[in-house]
Structures are given as C-alpha cells and as structure tokens.
Amino acid sequence: MQENIWRLLALVVVLGASNGWAQQPGSVDDQALRNSGKTGDEWLMNAGNYAATRYSPLNQINSTNVNRLGLAWYYDTNSLPGTLEATPVVSNGTLYATMTWGVVFAVDARTGQEKWRWDPQVGHQNFPPGSAGNPHRVRTGPSLCCGPGNRGVAVYDRKVYVGTLDARLVALDAQTGKVVWEVPTADKDSDYSITGAPLVVRGRVIIGNGGGEFAIRGYISAYDAETGKLIWRFYTVPGDPSKPFENKAMEVAAKTWSGDWWKLGGGGNPWNAISYDPELDLLYFGTGQGGPWVQKYRSAVGQDNLYICSIIALKPETGKFVWYFQTTPGDEWDYDSVADLVEADLKIDGRLRHVIMQAPKNGYFYVLDRKTGRFISAAPLQKITWAKGLDPKTGRPIINPEAHYGTTGTIIWPGPGGGHVWQGMSYNPQTELVYVTPGFASSFNYVQAKEFKPEVGEYNWGIVFRSTRRSADTNGTPPPPPPPPTPSAGGFLLAWDPVTETERWRVPATSGGGTMTTAGNLVFAASSDGQFEAFSADRGEKLWSVKLEQGFANPVTYMLDGKQYVSVLAGRAGKGRLYTFALDGNVPIPPPPAAAAPASNGQPPAPTTTNQQQ
C-alpha cells in the first residue's frame, strides 16, 4: 500500500513537470504583475508597477547609509551610437534591458554576467558611426525622429517583449533570447517606428508607435501575449471622413478637424507612456503632437484636432474608449503628452481623490480624476509663453494669440524639446511628493515654411528648421539665419507637491535621465555633468554621488539574496554601461568605455568580459 502511494506521488511529479505546471524559472503571471512593486524584490515592468510610480518599498539602502553605496558590478553594452534610454526590468534573478537600435540583453542581476543578447537587425549595419551627417536618420532603415533609442521591454509568461524601430513587436524566450513570435505592427514601408516599452495587461501586450514628425496617423494596439494575434487597435485621430469611422470616438473627433487632414495622417502617436488601474480596469496612454506641426497645413487654425496631445483611457480587454483630456488643443508647438502617467490616491480639499498625474511637454503639471478624466488642478513647472493660463474649472489652456506663428517667426517658451518628455517621473507615498526633471527647457523660434510639400520618409513639420535634411528646411530652400539664442531655464530635479501644486525643493539635474524613489527616504537622479546622485526625498539634501558617463536612462532597484541593488544605464555616442550599486560595493569605477564600432560584418561587436563581479 505504502509502495503504491510513493509510485503515485512519483507519477504526479513526473506528469506535473511534463505538463508544465511545475515551477518554471522566469515565469511572470497576471497576479505577479498586479502585485509588482509591493515587495520591491523585483522590478517587473518599465515604471515599476501598473501605477507607474517608480517607487520601491525597499529601505536597506536609506538616507542614513547611502554614502556607503559602491559599485557591485558593471556591464559594457558596446552599443552603437545613440542614447541609452531603457529602464531595466528585473525578474527571477535576471535583468533585461535594451540599448540603441533595440538590441535586447539579459544579464545575471547578481553579477552582470551576460546570459544572452538579441539583435533585431534594423538597418544599423548601414549606419556610419562618427559620420558628420545627421546620426538620427538612416536612409536605408526605418524613418526615425530622434535617434535609435529604445526605452525597454516587458516580461510575462517566460517571454520578453520588445518593440523595434521598424515597428515590429517581438516575443523572445526569457531563458534563451530566441524569437518565439514576431508581428509587424505597421506596414514595413511606412514611417512608423516603436521606441517605447510595451505593457502587458491580462494577457494582452499593449504597444503604441512613433512617427508624428512624418505626419502619419497614430494608434495603439493590443496583441495576444501567447500568439501575437492582434486583438484590438485604437486610432488616436480620425481617418477619411468619407469612410465609416472605426468607433464613436473617431466620429466625435472628426468634428474637430477640417480639410484633407487624413491624407497625411494627422499625428497623435502614442510613443511612450502607458499605465493601468486594475481596480477601475482602465488603461491609460498619452498621445503626441499633430502632424504637420503647422496647424493650417493639417486643419483650420483654432480647431482642437482630437485626440492629439491628450491623455486617453480605454478598456484593456476591448480597446473601448472611456474618456480623454486634451492638454494642448490644436497643438502647433510639438507639445507631446506622452510623459509618464502616474497614479496615486491624494487627499485634496479634505476628500480622497483617485488621480492620474502627468508633466507633459507643454510645461504644466496636471492632476486628473483617473476614473472620469475630469480636471482637478494644474500649475506651470517652468516658463510658459504659449498660453496665458488655464481655465480653473476645465483645465483648458488660454492660448496666447501671439503663439500662432507665421513665416516671420515667433519665439515661444518652452520649445519643442518641451518641459518634460520620456524621463521617468516618480511618486513617493511617504513624502507624498512627485520627483520630476523638467530638463533644459528653453525657447524656440517657430517659423512657418512658405511652401510645404509633404514627402514619404521625410520630416513633414511644415516649419523652417535648421537641419542637414532637405525637407526640414522648406524642401531645399536655404533657411534664414537663426535668431540669437535665448538662455536655457536650466536643468533641475524638482520635488513637487501635487496636492497644493507647489514646489517643495529643487536641485541641479540633467534632462537626460529620470528619477526613482524608495522607502529609504531616497530619490535617485542624474546631474548635468554625468554624476549619478542620491537625495533625501523629504528635503532634497545630496547624500551620495558618483561620476559616470553623461547621458542617463531611468534607474531601478531590486533585492537578491538579502542585498538591495540600484541599477542604471548611462552613456551615449557608443559609450554605454549598465552600472549596479550596493552597500559596500568595492568594484573600482572603470574609465569611460571606448566608442563601439561595428564588426566587419556590420553588426555590433560582442560585449567585453570586464563586466563580471570583482
């Protein structure tokens, strides 16, 4: 009898392993994603959790001992030129991240030892490193706006998901890096690209796209995480009004456009921020600028042009439209609303409000009701001249009539670089403060092109822009001399009180990287001269600093074997590393890496072996 029981148990174990329900390394399910960020042991998604707070409850490293932080290990990316922008994801002892051109790598999160790397083979073999031309454009590759950056991956069910610069969505095996499936999210000959990180919600991989500079029609899509099958697609601007609209939202939006806007596309590309509220079951994302920039070239001046520069809420299962809030109606200044969408529960005027917050490129900080999208409050983070203020009830901007520029040009604050873009914004529930880097906001002289001839594969701004590219300067006509430069507002890290819409403290920082905050009363950010720094979250006192390469991505933290680590990607122009710190780390800070050059076969060189823990 006892022998039969043992045989039965052995059979159950064997069957269980063969059927796949035995514990599988690297598996992340819906419950794990929903609980992401609650323990701090792992960093399972780009912004740390569905609420996109970039907050960790870890406090082993804290304001009393952070001065003991030292380098535990580093990893040379040997990436091709471009800026490292990815937020690492940490799952089951492995750290996953991307470098320029969407190359994905996996390393041991304890040591930095590489496990695998995958190259999407996107046109960079034709890129001449160090060339004098504009490095942001590859004539034989995809149409790119602002360099070959990629902001990270998503993990789910033993897979790693990444979007590519030629607008593919790819699922990789988390253990081997081998392709499980890949699907095109746009026509391969179009001007779409993907630079943002996907988000997985209830078995659906959510991804948007870029390309608004080329005046294409933006959309966001959901794909089955197991098969790659398209489940739904939501367009952000309306299409040809002579054809049936995809949904009621597009029918309503079409009333805010006129002329032949659909022939170019209209813009509104959702190229970065995505977050999710499991309780409300609402998916949130932000949209980019209109295309072309000059409104008269896409629609009548003064129309809202929904849903460009907006925050939109959908149902993640079906893509059904729920609400929107437009930060910059009729945008003519490239004021994307694609920055992080951070969720929090705040007590405002004695009432607990479930809010969503954003600091978009137009210079304001917004607090909205995340169930309804209703405006709660907003305030400027920096100098603003495009608007005279906001309606206190609706949040609609009172646009300065002088901001509508013509062929003679108008200087506007902020410029297209914006107040805040993709750099991570964090929220600490202990201090109830938001930490944001509005960056080097400066003005820009907007000048309408006298002639505008849209071209496939070329910037279709409709403005005069100093550039080596033909279509950017009125289709070959030499541009006028640029106006005298205006002083920058300076880069800074800002601690912002979202309840009172007031500044608590600020310190010099860089526009190149974002923030991460912890229960140890810490905020991690980067300075303008290549310093990676830690500040007290409550008072902004600088507690620790280390000199790294200039150009930072967004930092993360995690716990392994009872030790808390802090990791960040830093570098650009082919000089990049992943640095990981821990208490009493004793690895010497290495000299800056040499710029990477392609191997003879045109592919990036293999990583160096100096990344191992010493």
Key terms for this structure?
single chain; 614 residues; mainly beta; Lipocalin; 5-stranded mixed beta sheet; 32% strand; disordered N terminus; disordered C terminus
Structure description:
By secondary structure, this protein is mainly beta. It has a domain at 197-399: Lipocalin, CATH 2.40.128. It is 5% helix and 32% strand. It contains 3 helices and 39 strands. Strands 1-33-34-35-36 form a 5-stranded mixed beta sheet, with no helix packed on it. Strand 28 (426-428) and strand 29 (433-436) form a beta hairpin. The termini are far apart.
How do the helices and strands line up, and which of them pair or pack?
Blueprint: H1 2-19, H2 30-34, E1 55-56, E2 69-76, E3 89-91, E4 94-98, E5 104-108, E6 114-118, E7 154-156, E8 159-163, E9 168-173, E10 179-184, E11 199-201, E12 204-207, E13 219-224, E14 230-235, H3 248-254, E15 266-267, E16 274-277, E17 282-286, E18 290-291, E19 310-314, E20 321-326, E21 342-348, E22 351-358, E23 364-369, E24 375-380, E25 387-390, E26 397-399, E27 410-412, E28 426-428, E29 433-436, E30 444-446, E31 492-497, E32 502-508, E33 516-518, E34 522-526, E35 531-536, E36 542-547, E37 556-560, E38 563-572, E39 575-583
Parallel strand pairs: 1-33
Antiparallel strand pairs: 2-39, 3-4, 4-5, 5-6, 7-8, 8-9, 9-10, 11-12, 12-13, 13-14, 15-18, 16-17, 17-19, 19-20, 21-22, 22-23, 23-24, 25-26, 27-30, 28-29, 29-31, 31-32, 33-34, 34-35, 35-36, 37-38, 38-39
